[in-house]
Amino acid sequence: MKKTTLGKGLESLIPKADKPRSMVNEIDITEIYPNPDQPRKIFDEEALAELTDSIRRNGIIQPIVLAKAEDGYVIIAGERRWRAAGLAGLRRVPAVVREITRESEQMELALIENIQREDLGALELARAYKNLMETHGYRQEDVAEVVGKSRSAVANTIRLLGLPSRVIEALELKQITEGHARCLIGLDEKKAVEILIKIIENNLSVRETEKLASKKEKPEVEKAQPSENVFLLSLKSEMEEFFKTQVEIKSRKDGGTIEIKYTNNDELDRIIKTIRGELS
Fold first, then answer.
1. How many DSSP H helices and E strands does the chain contain?
2. How far is CA 209 from CA 88, 234, 239, in A?
3. Residue ranges of the alpha helices (H) in 137-188?
4. Beta strand 72-77 with 32-33: parallel, antiparallel or unpaired?
5. How far apart are the first and last CA of the chain?
6. pLDDT one-digit tens code per residue, 174-215
7. Residue range 39-53: average pLDDT?
8. Between 3.40.50.150, 3.90.1530.10, 3.40.1390.10, 3.30.450.40, what CATH number should domain 7-13+23-104 receive?
9. Which SMART domains does the annotation name (predicted)?
């Protein structure tokens, strides 16, 4: 896959104030249509109504970002503003038309815009990552580079899609949080749903859910053995990727320790430079 670093994020989408005003065009709202690759699928009706009132009073302050298409323009960033503008009765909207050179760039830019505005739910984010991988052949490393996250963070988000459908539905309906859902990753469907019901009925915290999920059912003659915290496993994986060496995290009631292992002085020197931020 030919990669393009998009670290500039929103700066690469929207022109700075000192650039010519002519870059912002007034586009007929009927010539604009939603991006089929838009990661965010759920638009809160109350928030949309508030934005509509604001636009009706003040107009659109920040232009929508579009890409030219055969039959009009497709939205890269600003679908909520476009929807609210229509509800407010506007006929034309201010917009910046961006040239798209790669088929996957449209999806990348829409994903970055939503991430930086913190508009995406966990499942929408997971589906967007998966879509990039399945549609355009991205690896997890490629997705991580595009969105500015670690590979393990991308992998852990995608794992949410493997949860039982009942859990996914509860997360979409906001009956549970992403933290609750992560505790249920890796459990069989029966146990995951049992714990889900307890979360909803008893308003359990993430910490309480984590304890329930970590309990293993064993014969009474065996002593219960504590299982590793799902969050610590994720953190361990991320730290090992960062330091490029083995990491051990040991927790106790009153705290714990993190051990970063090295095999020689050169490796120790590299780890120290990584901690100090001396390595690029």
1. 12, 7
2. 44, 16, 24
3. 140-147, 151-158, 165-172, 178-183
4. parallel
5. 24
6. 899 989 999 998 888 999 999 999 999 999 999 999 988 887
7. 75
8. 3.90.1530.10
9. ParB
The least confident of 145-149, 163-167, 239-243, 271-275 is 145-149
Give pTM, 2 decimals. Answer: 0.47
In terms of Cβ atoms closer than 10 Å to its own Cβ (0-12, 13-18, 19+), residue 190 is exposed
- H-assigned helices in 64-176: 79-87, 105-116, 122-136, 140-147, 151-158, 165-172
Sheet holding 92-98, edge to edge: 24-28, 92-98, 64-69, 72-77, 32-33
The lowest-confidence range among 2-16, 138-152, 248-262 is 2-16
Strand 64-69 relative to strand 24-28, pairing: unpaired
79 is catalytic: yes
* From 45, 79, 145, 259, the catalytic residue: 79
| Domain range summary for the chain, segments of one domain joined by + | 7-13+23-104, 239-276
Contact 47, 111 (CB under 8 A): no
